User: Fold this.
Amino acid sequence: MSISDQILAQHAQRSHVDPGEFLQASIDYVMVHEQLGGRIAPEFRKLGLDHIWDPDRVVFILDHWVPPPDVRAAKMHQTANRFAKEFNFTWNLGQNQGICHQVLPEKGFTQPGRLIVGSDSHTTTYGAFNCFATGIGATDVSMIFATGELWFQVPETRRINFTGRLNPSVLGKDVVLTMLRDFKTDGAIYEGFEFGGTGLSQISIDSRMTIANMVVEMGAKTGIFEGDPQLTQWLADHPSPTLSNSPTPTSSPFISPIPDYTYKSVNEYELDSIIPMIARPYSPDNVIPVAEMDRIPIDQAFLGSCTNGRLEDLRIAAKIVHHKKIPQQVKFIIIPASREIYLQAMREGLLEIFIEAGGVVEYPTCGPCIGGHMGVLGPGEICISTTNRNFRGRMGDPTSQSYLASPATVAASAVTGKITVPEAITPQ
Assistant:
């Protein structure tokens, strides 16, 4: 079986499963954010439900509209907070921790072999930690609240083997954009990706999270990385949370594929050959090398979101903008993905570098990515962004345009005021 097959089989108490089978599986954790106050709580009431199967298995966090930019968002937060209090959610992380897909791994919830679902499509991010993770809708969350289980169809699996090592100005964002160029947004619908190979050790945990985050842009159900010493160290630094009165979900050793498994496809990516890539409007798969792009003037450069905004991203961007000045007409917005990252970036002097260059550092939130606040685009504005989607109107006005790129490319473009290959700017 593939890694995803094995995890689903374990959670369905089965010895073996095959792609295409339907099964009922027990859930280790369900993550909910603002949607608890938006769609989930009303759906839960509509279904006549009145209890939570296990409040210890629910992780609640607010991150999309933090702090609330308007009355509608404030009311959504109120509804979500009241629901969490009414049903005694144990893991109520509130609204000052950061973006959910960064915070849950930091808190140790994403352990190998676990089955985790969330009310956000980019829950696939947790696959970086050798667990099966996927996004679900409000009705599915409500049924998990009541039963602790959810049905799945076992996905077919595509194997991705990495070889070589990434060049200094190339990050996981460039890897996944290269995959999107190859697979397109409909190339892996309800399929799973499995990542490994001799080059895996050359991909940081931060970059793995970026890759796992964006498999959903290819239609995938999940994207799971094999374990290795690098992940062992991460997990040692971020142990699973424990409760004195209730056991936490069991954690398994790394789940590895069983030899001779027949994948739907096996693809090899030579990391040395990957170059900075960019996705043009209005699709994440409209990808070409940055070097082939016209040097289009930009109005905004955004570094953040659940896709990027991690320490690796902030560090490389800070090297590029150090001792440089952002053009006055460019809004350079930097949002660390979590409070932990914000504090570490502050200790390392990264935030000072951004601010001295003319950037604006904001508190951890999804904000600009969803056109919510703290960087909404106006009519005709052009943004280069580290986010995961560039659909029409995603970041603001329908006539605005968003280009997706790595933190290095975003920082280089912020310095020049035009879309720029990162190698064109000498770090200091």
Remarks:
- The first strand starts at residue 22 and ends at 26.
